[in-house]
Amino acid sequence: MILTETPVVTAALEAAVRAPSPHNSQPWLFELGPDVIDLVLDEDRVLEVCDPDRREARLSCGAALLNLQLAIAVAGRSCDVEFLPRKDRPELLARVVVGARHRATATEQRLAASIRARYSNRRPFASTAVPAGFRYAVRQAAREEGAKLILLDEVGLLEAVTGLIRRADHVQTLDEGFQAELRAWTKENGSREGVPAYAGGPRPSGGLLPVRHHGQSEQAREFERDPVVAVLTTPTDGPLAQIRAGRAMQRALLTATSLGLSASFYSQPMEIPSARAVLRSLLGENENPQVVFRLGYGFPGSTTPRRPVDAVIRTRSGESHR
Questions:
Q1: Of these four, 185, 245, 273, 300, which has the most CB atoms within 10 Å of its CB?
Q2: What pTM value is reported for the model?
Q3: Beta bridge partners of 40
Q4: Terminus-to-terminus CA distance in the chain, angstroms?
Q5: d(CA 286, CA 236)
Q6: 150 lies in the same domain as 286
Q7: Are residues 83 and 199 in the same domain?
Q8: Residue 31 maps to which CATH number?
Q9: Are residues 150 and 225 in the same domain?
């Protein structure tokens, strides 16, 4: 029997909460029982302005799910995952049953080792080109989770999507509700949630694309003019596709981290329905865009804090743990 105090479960939960989330909102809860971890969408931490349909929250939970599985694997256990196990509880996104002994693969070990090292690097990247082999590895990581990672410079769409991102950024800059939500999740140093000032990055003064600015700093820096911009897509959409997309996103990000690359998100066009629709038409009607992010060689930064595990767990209904 796997109890909540065991090193396996503790390590799994500590890894899960290191997943990325919009504004570092951490929209997840974990319901624990013997041998079982239920992943639940925390409705109280959904961003109602930029994520009213919960799509980004489900992506974040999917990323947390992959971290959870990797940590269980390197702790020497197998696990089975059931997605959306109860139709009467749509907020219950996945059920993880911890199983027999397991010998972690080299890939599982490499990705698990990257969980704590990965963070969103909102600072300018170096001009060093990302090698073709690294590009392939990151694309392949997304493919292993059933998604596609499109590198825009390779398909001739960088200029068109750049314009879309800039327009979406301008719309959000003028949206008082969005700006109020952004300020609410921009926290003082020492907070365990939101984006602290030290992780917000400088205000963009140039470069090809606007990186979302957090904090009150007026420091301005020029960003790279030739970024590697990736769009992760899925063949379908909806809650299940979004959970799976989150897993694919995290596998790609952990792979990039293991290769010494940095990443950060261009969420603007994903948070405005009309902009997301335009992006879909640019990519092809069979592609459902889920995430846009940049890759490159970043200068060293810091990880953002997370809430402690005790704050995100509760006992499964009808069961107890000790």
A1: 245
A2: 0.92
A3: 29, 92
A4: 12
A5: 8
A6: yes
A7: no
A8: 3.40.109.10
A9: yes
* DSSP three-state, residue 292: strand
Say if residues 54 and 116 touch (Cβ distance below 8 Å). no
Return the bridge partners of 33, or none: 36
The edge-to-edge listing of strands for the beta sheet with 148-151 is: 148-151, 228-234, 288-296, 262-265
Whose tokens are 């948070």? That residue is 271
Q: Which residue has the tokens 């489900």?
A: 58
Domain membership of residue 33 (yes or no) is yes
Asked if residue 145 and residue 88 are part of one domain, the reply reads no
Assess contact for 279 and 273: CB atoms under 8 A.
no
Q: Give strand pairing partners of 265.
A: 293
Helices assigned H by DSSP within the chain = 7-16, 55-74, 106-113, 132-144, 158-174, 176-184, 239-258, 273-283
> For residue 268, what are the domain limits?
132-296
pLDDT tens digits, one per residue of 14-31:
999 999 999 999 999 999
Query: What gap in Å lies between CA 246 and CA 142, rounded to an integer?
Result: 10
Q: Tell me, yes or no, whether 136 lies in a domain.
A: yes
DSSP string over 208-251: SSPPPP-SS---EEEPPSS-EEEEEEESS-SHHHHHHHHHHHHH
pLDDT tens, residue by residue, 301-319: 888 899 999 999 998 864 4
* Number of alpha carbons in the 13 Å side-chain half-sphere of residue 62: 30
pLDDT band at 270 (very low <50, low <70, confident <90, very high): very high
**Cβ proximity of 35 and 98 under 8 Å:** yes
Q: What's the total number of domains in the chain?
A: 2
Q: Are residues 167 and 238 in the same domain?
A: yes
- Per the CB < 8 A criterion, the answer to whether 135 and 228 are in contact is yes
Q: Is 28 within the bounds of a domain?
A: yes
- Same domain for 78 and 147, yes or no, is no
- Residues 168-192 have pLDDT tens digits of 999 999 999 999 999 999 887 778 8
Q: Which residues contact 108 (CB under 8 A, 6 or more apart)?
A: 70, 73, 74
Same domain, residue pair 20 and 102: yes
